[in-house]
Amino acid sequence: MREFAKAETFIYDAVMKKVIYLDNASTTSVRPEVILAMKPYWSENFGNPSAITKMGVLAKQTIEKSRQTVVETLFRRPNEIIFTSGGTESNNLAIFGLVNYLERQERKISSLHFITTNIEHSSVTECFKELERRGAKVDYLKVNEQGLVEPKDLRKLIKPNTVLVSIGYANNEIGTIQPIRELAKEIRHARKNNKIPSENSSERLGTPLSGEDFSDGIFPLFHTDASQAGLWLDLNMNQLGVDLMTLDAQKMNGPKGAGVLFVRVGVNLSPIIFGGGQEKGLRSGTENVPLIVGLAKTFELARKDWGKKNKKMKIIRDYFWQKIQTKIPNAILNGGLENRLPNNLNISIPEINSEFLVLCLDEAGIFCSTKSSCERDAEESFVVKALSREEWRAQTSLRFSLGENTTKKELDYVVNILKNEVEKQKLAIF
């Protein structure tokens, strides 16, 4: 009962006072249109898509229609879209799905090589740590002070037995946008330089390779976690040049529990969940029709005039940063202002307790964060530490991720409250 009372108190407070939500990198509110689109599939058109009845057929048709909507955003084919429960599952399926496939081809995990970066989301990083525990070799690309990967550094790390490169499109903490197209060119360059076996060779994809030579003109594959990119960046798969891409509805004003893994035709994965063989056998389990419908509607709305929304948001974000610099001159920006998501601002303020500051802002009706919500037990931001090499910046970081409806007036209020709370902390120290 106590938990319900707390929840009711929170709802009451949210209604009674002004709420400024600046934690959209963590999750976003669901659009009314999305809720409306999902509504009939909870209790009216609730058939099982695997059933042969009329209700089942209707549910299956609804899923395929939703898949087509997503395809129109990515400019690809319906059979390349796998519906999942969100970003974490999509990342796991991309990485372990490939590993499972290669192990079925009698390729030892100890002979596999992977490349990622030192600032990836935990749902990517923890996958590679697990692969290292199993004996795989993993290289972690370092980022520069802007939080970016240098394509030439990737080229140096690719080996004949490199099977997968996984680099996030836009970072969830500092918002830096990686040069995905340039990185894809480096990977294509590596593929061309690999020896492509002849048709009669016993070393084609799908058969065991001798030694540690995985050079078959297909590897390495390129995966990108684009969970943060859905609202703001180009998702044209024909231009990005990736083989696998993760997207998450909850980061795009859609429902939690719905995601997509794009799998380019010709890429072979094996399932990590077993059962009835839904989603091309890669994601068994009865499809969640309402969430899939909500995801499709989310994609449709998110991609409408996204370029204009991007420019408008960048103006508001830059205004916010200018105001912070004026009121709090010793604040430092983490990551460059260019090549950054238009709604992201990550700063460090010397000599503050950032977690306590977030709670103080919370009391004022302002919601932000110190780092990724998935790293809530960590004492510092490993992402900020990776680019700054300074511990104090990693321990005092604040992440503000704006929404489409954030206004300059709201941000003026945030800056004033932020300045007051920072001054209170400094007075308390002395």
Please, could you describe this protein's structure?
With 430 residues, the protein is α/β, with parallel strands linked by helices. It has two domains: 145 residues, Alpha-Beta Complex (Aspartate Aminotransferase, domain 1), CATH 3.90.1150; 270 residues, Type I PLP-dependent aspartate aminotransferase-like (Major domain) (Aspartate Aminotransferase, domain 2, 3-Layer(aba) Sandwich), CATH 3.40.640.10. It contains 15 helices and twelve strands. The strands form three sheets. It has a seven-stranded mixed beta sheet, with helices on both faces. Helix 2 packs antiparallel against helix 10, helix 4 packs parallel to helix 10 and helix 7 packs parallel to helix 8. The two termini are 42 Å apart. 43% of the residues are buried.
Parts with pLDDT < 50 across at least 5 consecutive residues: 195-215
Which whole number gives the mean pLDDT? 90
List the helices and strands in order. Answer: HEHHHEHEHEHEHEHEEHHEEHEHHEH
Cross-sheet strand order for the largest sheet: 2-8-7-6-5-3-4
Count of beta strands? 12
